[in-house]
């Protein structure tokens, strides 16, 4: 059965923006949804003024997961880390002109991937980003030049 995707979703699925990785990223976060098994990893390059210079992603998941990660990275670029918290799953969905109800969780995964990357950035720099919580779906292994064990 075909899903009713908006043109924007199809555009970001067939031609996703910001696919790839950032070497020595300021923050990198990986999240997974245990039910569908989809995984998203987001890399952020953040400058000394806490502005997100670049964002890239790798997603192993459904078409909506790819479209939402693409849109989420587009939306956070150029924003401060604080402003990036406003890129919620709702904002991502709105920017994509909506998602079918069974695909709403894909946009949540995109929000969480951004949060996981911001969390990693905050941890690496010993700062607190007000309003940011570590996503429960965070499955980051912190294998990007950051050796702390975070057992929780
Ligand atoms: Fe789970 Fe899309 S079906 S992220």
From TrEMBL:
Pfam families: NifU_N (PF01592). Gene3D superfamilies: 3.90.1010.10. GO terms for biological process: iron-sulfur cluster assembly. GO terms for molecular function: iron ion binding; iron-sulfur cluster binding. Residues 5-125 form the NIF system FeS cluster assembly NifU N-terminal domain. InterPro entries: NIF_FeS_clus_asmbl_NifU-like, NIF_FeS_clus_asmbl_NifU_N. NCBIfam families: NifU_clost. This is Iron-sulfur cluster assembly scaffold protein.
